[in-house]
Amino acid sequence: MCGVFSGWGVGTLAGMPSSLWNRSFTVWLIGTAQSQFGSAVAGLALSFLVLHQTGSAGQMAVTLACSLLPNLLMPLAGALVDRWNLRGPVIASDLIRGALQLGVGAAALRWGEVPLALINGVAVLTGLVGLFAAPASSAAVPLLVPAGALARANAVLSSVSRGAWLLGSLTGGWIVTRWSPPLAILLDGVSFLLMAALMGLVTLPDRAAPGAAERPAGLLSEVSAGLRVMGRSRTLTLAPVIALLLNAGLAPVTAALPKLFAGGGGTAAGYGTFLVLESVGVMAAGALVALLATRLDSRRLITVGLAVTAGAYGLMWALPQPAALLPAAGALGFGFGLINTPFQTLMQELVPQAFLGRVFSVLGMVSTVGMPLSLLLVAPLLDRAPLPVWFGVAGVAQGLGCALWLWAACAERPARGVHLDLRP
Question: Which parts of the chain span the membrane according to its record (predicted)?
Fold first, then answer.
């Protein structure tokens, strides 16, 4: 379809590792899986803690909103990440989040109930601290592995992280049911502290960051510089728009599925099976990319992934029964895996290392804020339209995202051996 973008500034730093399975990447992989496991456990446990104390799904939504609201500031966090050594933000955020979770869990165990204002305050603080971890983690991967192994590294990280999240969700449900939500929250706090300890064993080469004379004065100027870098490429300019479209389409589907399973001849357990099959699909796509990374073109994979997910939504719209929804779940997860991992690799190859934090923070902000905002917009309409209609809406959004992607990616075909220069 389209040629591969030649990377700029990837793999050119002194001290870069010579193999994929070096100590730092292996430790990073284990630490990331540990953190994903604990986060899945705590996410489920915190929801049940709020539900147990208030009996209100609305209060659960408020707590979720408190944890997501700080993501609006993610571009500022990305600018700070681009100033610092990448390991520091990850370790500091893990230590602080671990302490916050241990505090809430211990308070709930000791007193039985925790004031809702305190829970929401901790959710806001946890979200603020997490702002630094996400862009730093994405920007660090190109420094952990050789340039030729970047796609494989991202695929392995994606599959292992998804597997750890799935295991954490299942384990969290078991702990909450058998014991209590506070115990699961304490487990999450311990997982963050373990992640911080493991990150202390990681070695990262220095980045080719701009010197003080080249750096704009002030955080807002640095964010603007990152946006100018994105503006030099149609692919990067449209990437947030495409991400917003995909998340906007997924939001009503996420809200409609539980009700559809509960009332359409399925059970609540059927929705859990749907999520498991979706995760299996993501892991299968990650394994495929990891095995065939050197033969697969990132942009072709993204296009196939967009087409597969659009087709899965179409199947869900045409046959909204559990017998068809469950196979569609695997296809949907496989498509997501073909989109997300190659997309991250492409961003890491396209963007100069000194700007990765800012670029990933903009994409992260759109991805994390787009879904709850879309849910708020469609919430009044969810019960008024037949539930399968929302699968059709998601398919249309996915198809539109695919069309925009093809227009953007095919417009930028640097000649063989010519680099796409994104330096500001």
Answer: 25-49, 118-144, 183-204, 236-257, 269-294, 301-319, 325-343, 355-381, 387-407
The amino acid sitting at 403 is A
Q: Which residue matches tokens 């008024």?
A: 384
Q: What amino acid occupies position 405?
A: W
Domain residue ranges in the chain:
23-203+219-410
Letter for the amino acid at 118? L
How many other C-beta atoms can be found within 10 angstroms of the C-beta atom of residue 178?
A: 8
Q: For the CA atoms of the chain, what is the radius of gyration?
A: 21
In the chain, DSSP finds a helix count (H) and a strand count (E) of 14, 0
For the stretch 354-387, pLDDT in tens is 888 888 888 888 877 777 677 667 767 777 778 7
d(CA 379, CA 382): 5
pTM of the entire predicted model? 0.76
Q: Report the 10 Å Cβ neighbour count for 202.
A: 20
Specify the residue for token string 């925790």.
114
The CATH architecture to which 23-203+219-410 belongs is: Up-down Bundle (1.20)
Helix (H, G, I), strand (E, B) or coil at 373: helix
Q: How far apart are CA 299 and CA 292, in angstroms?
A: 14
Q: CA-to-CA distance for 217 and 417, rounded, in angstroms?
A: 35
Do the beta carbons of residue 92 and residue 132 sit within 8 Å?
Answer: yes
Nearest Cα residue to 342 out of 397, 297, 389, 405: 297
